[in-house]
Amino acid sequence: MSEFSFETEYAVEFLQSFDPSGWHNLVAIDPEGGGPIGRTFPPNAFHEISKFVERHNGKRNLYFTVNEPSATAPHKKLEKGDIGTIRAVFTDIDPADANLTKERQRLKALAFASDADIVIDSGGGVQLFWQLASKIPAADFEWAEGCCRRLGKDFGGDNTWNVDRLMRLPYTVNLPDAKKRAKGRSKAIATVLRTQRGRWTRDALEQAFPPIASDRIGQDRSSETRETSKRILASDYTSFAEYDDLPVDLRDRLAAALSKDPGLDQLWHGEGAGNEFRFELAAKLKALDFEVEDYARLANIWQRSTSKPERPSARELARDWVRSPSIMSAADEFGVVEIEIPIRPEKRRGFYTLGLQEVIERAQADDTVPLIEHVLDQGTLAVLYGKPNCGKSFVALDMAFAIAGAVPWAGHGVSQGSVLYVAAEGGRGVNQRIRAIVQKRQIACDTPFALAPCSIDLFDGAADVKAVIAAAHALSAQHAAPLRMVVIDTLARSFGAGDENTVKDMTKCIRNLDAIREATQATILVIHHSGKDASKGARGSSALLGAADTEIEIADRHFRTTKQRDMPLLPADIRFDLQSVDLGLNRAGQHVSSCVVQFLTGTEFDPIPLAPAAEKLRQSLVAALSTSAENEVSWAAWMEAHCTATDPAWHLGSDLPRGCSPSNLRKLRNEVIECGHAKSISDDMFALA
Fold first, then answer.
1. Which H or E run includes 486?
2. Which of 445, 464, 511, 640 could cross-link to 456 by cystine, CB 3.0-4.6 Å?
3. How far apart, in whole angstroms, are the C-alpha atoms of residue 299 and residue 286?
């Protein structure tokens, strides 16, 4: 086992990919005060870097110097004279003082709309980097700082233009200071949202982001604000005191925008008032091609524009408009740009026929290989179903990472490519499952995999369908890897207001799945539940089975194909179990574990040991069953046995022993069940497996 934590290894791996052979400078800063602790490392000193990160992560905020230190750089927070070469230009965008969740979604959408090589979610805002294909001398720092000023102006970033700038080290803890905590900020892990090899020449950067001299940016913004204020005053915006006073054309355009953009609708009709809501309105209207005059008239009659008695002035409105970023609209659930991708091909070829010779020639020319040999074909619709807690999601994730990582799955070859996993049931469990796979399989952080941990509507959600397509194309472009699979986990949480038991509603869902498949050319794997009678297959309308090219059943830790349209069924079941993976302690000191798929080749299942806390709960189930006349016990009886085993002095009505909170025990119970040591008889009754 590594001497360093999972987070430290990923943080150092990021630095290795950022500059594998250069010097690095790291700085640790206590959010509560005190001087910074800086250290400069020579090339290839990644073991020493790991020690520094491990020592300070979670105790101090960790940063890296973007540009390369010189060989004589000291052990401290560097200054401009300590920089040896320029390796990237950048901007740092912090959330405005608005709804933090929505503001972070806006920033991520802005980041994904950019052509930045690296995007870091700092735990608060986003940091964007454009890497140089070849480093340039530090003597050209004025040019680099000019590019950074341009980026800050174009993207609404902070004053992060200096070449000795520190940026948040990804995969370390962002510890907010008292001021940020007062605004609702809490601890968060910084992560990499996008990374790709540097590809910018100096000329290309200069053309894309013409440098701004140090004394111009403030003048440019002030001048733009003055001109915008003049336009607002000329619009006579104060003459419109109520909504009904607005021009009919403006009301019609606003109504259309509200119906199209749920985020704008929620903002417009929400509660509360203040400058931050007005700033958000300006950004959204600008993105929807409204003019500043439209914004001024709407903001003047909008109840949320200000918390003060007087209405906003023309200068305040102009400042909002100038400072708000202009971004494309994005699907809020995904935080990715909704680009114009047709849901279906724009033109459908009319009826036509092929001669036998042409059919044979096309068949011979078709060199498409399966997605997973003998299991999944490329560009098809597949359904994987089973009872609750049978391991469906674990298997689907295992398949996804095999495809993304180009490794055989259960001994079957794969076609490597990007995978988008829509975890519609959400929850933190999927994060731990992925972490367990990454840790157990040693998966690199630049593997072309993306998670969408949010519900979608495949019944009546055209916007969601387009958002999935946009996310899939963005993922493929980000990693320069063809999209191979989109996983929908589960169908039930992606069905919106539809009834999966009716042919009409299921057919509508299938059309949307086909739309995603046609637009992405990827295999769509839908995770579904079996019906009350498992022998009759997946629950709901049989229209789904009819449309599926492949149907997979999981039962009793057996994986079997029950339908294949264009390939033979598996000759034998794939047998598996779930192996517990210890993920250590979380920052609250609680034990964390999850499971990964373990394929079995013997005739009997080898016992899979549980993590200590889960094993103790399993033993409590054995104890509870020993005092029961039946072969099953209630959850209350199981919990009572465990609390007594944890603290013999405990009794009903007293405080629960440490580690025995209902939420913690339910999590451990799920692990015991998922690892095959217990089973759920009903919602409240349990037995040994």
1. strand 483-489
2. 464
3. 13
Q: How far apart are CA 321 and CA 284, in angstroms?
A: 10
Q: What are the distances in angstroms from CA 315 to CA 97, 305, 319, 380, 510?
A: 19, 14, 6, 56, 52
- Residue 25 forms beta bridges with which residues? 40
Task: Return the HEC string of 241-259.
Answer: CCHHHCCHHHHHHHHHHHH
Q: For 565-628, list the strands marked E by DSSP.
A: 574-585, 591-599
Neighbouring residues of 407: CB distance < 8 A, sequence distance ≥ 6 = 414, 441
Burial group, residue 438, by CB count within 10 angstroms (0-12, 13-18, 19+)? buried
DSSP 495: B
Q: Are 55 and 47 in contact (CB under 8 A)?
A: no
- Superfamily per CATH, domain 6-208: RepB DNA-primase, N-terminal domain (3.30.70.1790)
In this model, does residue 328 exceed pLDDT 50?
no
Strand ranges inside 307-372, DSSP E: 330-331, 336-337
Looking at per-residue pLDDT, the higher value among 678 and 297 belongs to 297
Q: Taking residues 226-230, report their average pLDDT.
A: 86
Q: Is 396:465 a contact under the CB 8 Å cutoff?
A: no
- Range(s) of the chain covered by CATH 1.10.10: 609-688
pLDDT digits (tens, 9 = 90+) for 370-418: 999 999 999 999 999 998 888 899 999 999 999 998 888 988 888 899 9
- Strands 37-41 and 24-29, how do they pair? antiparallel
Residues of the chain with CATH 3.40.50.300: 370-577
Mean pLDDT of the chain: 82
The answer to whether the Cα torsion of 422, 427, 433, 435 is positive or negative is positive
Separation CA 599–CA 578 (nearest Å): 9
Across 75-89, average pLDDT: 92
Q: Where in the chain is the domain with CATH 3.30.70.1790?
A: 6-208
For the stretch 7-28, pLDDT in tens is 888 889 889 988 989 999 999 9
Please give the full DSSP string across 412-468, using - where no structure is assigned. B-B---EEEEEETT-STHHHHHHHHHHHHHT--TTSSEEEE-S--BSSS-HHHHHHH
Second CATH level (architecture) for the domain 609-688: Orthogonal Bundle (1.10)
CA separation for the pair 451, 431 (Å, rounded): 9
CATH of region 370-577: 3.40.50.300
Residue 140 is which amino acid? D
Question: Taking Cα atoms as reference points, which of 254, 256, 123 lies closest to residue 190?
Answer: 123
pLDDT at 504 over 90: no
Q: In what order do the strands lie in the sheet with 591-599?
A: 449-452, 418-423, 483-489, 523-529, 381-386, 550-555, 558-564, 574-585, 591-599
For the segment 588-647, what is each residue's pLDDT rounded down to a tens digit?
677 788 899 988 754 333 445 677 888 899 999 999 998 888 888 999 899 999 999 999
CA 508 and chain centroid, separation: 27
Q: How far apart (Å, rounded) are the C-alpha atoms in residues 36 and 62?
A: 10
- The answer to whether 643 and 653 are in contact (CB under 8 A) is no
The string of DSSP codes covering 198-229 is --B-HHHHHHHS----TTTHHHHHHHHHHHHH
